[in-house]
Amino acid sequence: MTLKECYAALGGDYDEAMGRLRSEKLVQKFVLKFLNDGSYRLLCDSLASGDRDEAFRASHTIKGVCANLAFNALLESSEALTEALRDGKPPQPGEDELVARVKADYERTAQAIRAYQEGGAG
After folding, report:
1. 19/95 Cα distance (integer angstroms)
2. In sequence order, what E strands does 47-101 have?
3. Phi-psi category of residue 11: left, alpha or beta, with phi > 0 → left and psi -120 to 50 → alpha
4. What gap in Å lies between CA 9 and CA 20, rounded to an integer?
């Protein structure tokens, strides 16, 4: 799997990432580091414990990383969840679906990156 194919599999925009970072080697470096970022685990743990402020921070971090790397599917879902959690808002109708969408998009992203990695990247 090429890096461009990885981006297609995870619902991202390879050309946008290349335009931002200007080097496939640099894009690859940050794509592979994504799996080691603890923000997703923090998001899940914070949601489970009811710590909405920490969940907001974790979701916001995921959103920012995805914006920088042009991981558009996960960017869209994490952005929606970030807004639902902003300013300590109480749980809203439909929030469970937002969380489920973030989890599904994260898994899709992680699976694509692992497949890329197993194909010899990095």
Report:
1. 34
2. none
3. left
4. 20
The letter for the amino acid at 80 is A
Q: Name 42's Cβ contacts closer than 8 Å, sequence gap at least 6.
A: 54, 57, 58
| Neighbour tally for 44: CB within 10 Å | 16
Cα torsion 3, 28, 119, 39: sign: negative
The residue with tokens 């990095």 is: 122
Residue pLDDT, tens place only, 5-58: 999 999 999 999 999 999 999 999 999 999 999 999 999 999 999 999 999 999
Interatomic CA distance for residues 27 and 21, integer angstroms? 6
Task: Read off the pLDDT of residues 78-104 as tens digits, 9 standing for 90 and up.
Answer: 999 999 999 988 888 899 999 999 999
pLDDT at residue 10 in the model: 97
Cα–Cα dist 69/120, whole Å: 20
CA dihedral for 119, 6, 70, 18, sign (positive or negative): positive
Beta strands in the chain (DSSP E): none
Cα Rg, the chain, nearest whole Å: 15
